[in-house]
Specification:
373 residues; alpha/beta; Non-ribosomal Peptide Synthetase Peptidyl Carrier Protein, Chain A; Rossmann fold; 2 domains; seven-stranded mixed sheet; 12 helices; globular
């Protein structure tokens, strides 16, 4: 078969597996976003080999995680430039599986479609305390715009993902994402003033990596605020199948009767892929911020998973973390990354996805005010 015929036949087989017309596939979409989990990927790889003789391995769907990359990979079977599971260097887009980070973190990154920082309250040069808040998987730092006034001497800055509204280009590691933001932080922070960094969910990972970068550059990070952020040392990345279930049931990113917008789901999916590859290393005790404040919720997304109709694997800890009611969590693994800090623990209303939605945002604002003023 010609390369184009191989691609056409393969996409028909994959489309059948994920119940999607192959004509609807978009090059930027990832297999995980389309619902091709590990078990389904294994079965689909077997079908490709048996039906059209293409020796695809299950992990090829991870090596070439988008439709466009996988099509390029498949064409090599037709033109003879690749045998078995091999692939020529030129056929791989290494930005999805980086081995080394470029010296310039913005290399190859498209111009952001939205400002990467938004001053939500106060002015950085006039405030005694500047609080930088990193976004959750949605990528929208503007979600913190619902917070009530924190204080006359407090400036609140929300950080937007550089890939907001263009999630198809979000292939960066968590560490590189932090590098994309650090220049903005240093530009906005008055010189010599200690940093206060916070983050909700995956935003906690960004805040942590940004802290490491700032400290390495001689800056002082005085405080970290971790908002319902499950430590990656103890919790897995959220399985794509759970993302799909929550989206379909209107439990993720929904507001009132409105379901999550498509851009949010796409960015969340890209975030999950980056989190899967992320495994943080500890800060030396001498560099750890003096204060680490935890804000946890206690409510689950549902009162009973069994009665919710959700088809999820509760053997996955992070799935239980999101769905089920919880006890009052403490450091839950973060103490290994931030040893020796003074920890405080606060608990707010709402579930994980309601944190910046009224009225729960009022509770979050109250807690942040008690921490920083």
């Amino acid at each position: 078969m010609s390369p184009d015929e191989i691609v056409e036949k393969a996409l028909e087989i994959i489309g059948e597996a994920v119940s999607t017309d192959p004509l609807d596939f978009q090059d930027h979409e990832t297999w995980k976003f389309l619902g091709l989990g590990d078990l389904l990927a294994s079965a689909t790889a077997s079908d490709l080999k048996n039906q059209i003789g293409v020796d695809v391995k299950p992990d090829d769907f991870s090596k070439y995680p988008s439709v466009g990359e996988f099509k390029t990979f498949l064409r090599n079977f037709g033109d003879g430039s690749s045998k078995g599971n091999g692939v020529t260097a030129s056929s791989r887009n290494d930005s999805h599986i980086p081995n080394t980070e470029p010296s310039d973190p913005w290399e190859g990154v498209p111009k952001p479609k939205v400002p990467i920082s938004v001053v939500l309250q106060g002015q950085p040069n006039a405030a005694s305390t500047v609080v930088f808040l990193f976004p959750d998987g949605s990528g929208a730092g503007t979600s913190y715009g619902t917070l009530p006034p924190i204080g006359d001497n407090v400036c609140l800055i929300g950080l937007n993902s550089p890939f907001l509204r263009q999630a198809q280009d979000f292939t960066c590691s968590i560490e590189r994402m932090a590098r994309l933001w650090v220049g903005e932080l240093r530009k906005l922070q008055p010189k010599g003033k200690p940093y206060v960094l916070g983050g909700w969910s995956a935003g906690g990972y960004y805040a942590y990596e940004a802290a490491k970068l700032l400290i390495a550059n001689g800056e002082k990070v005085e405080r970290m605020i971790l908002i319902d952020s499950p430590c990656r040392l103890q919790f897995e990345a959220l399985p794509p199948q759970v993302v799909s279930e929550l989206t379909q049931k209107g439990l993720m990113g929904a507001s009132g009767q409105k379901k999550a917008p498509e851009w949010l789901v796409q960015h969340f999916t890209s975030t999950v892929i980056s989190v899967e590859k992320y495994m943080p290393t500890a800060l030396p005790a001498k560099d750890v911020p003096q204060h680490v404040d935890f804000i946890w919720i206690r409510e689950g997304l549902v009162k009973s998973v069994a009665e919710s109709g959700l088809e999820v694997d509760l053997n996955i800890k992070v799935t239980r973390f999101l769905l089920e009611p919880r006890p009052e969590l403490k450091t839950v693994g973060w103490e290994e990354l931030l040893p020796g800090a003074k920890y405080t623990f606060n608990y707010m209303t709402g579930n994980h996805f309601q944190i910046t939605q009224p009225p729960h945002s009022d509770d979050l604002g109250r807690i942040i005010k008690s921490i920083v003023t």
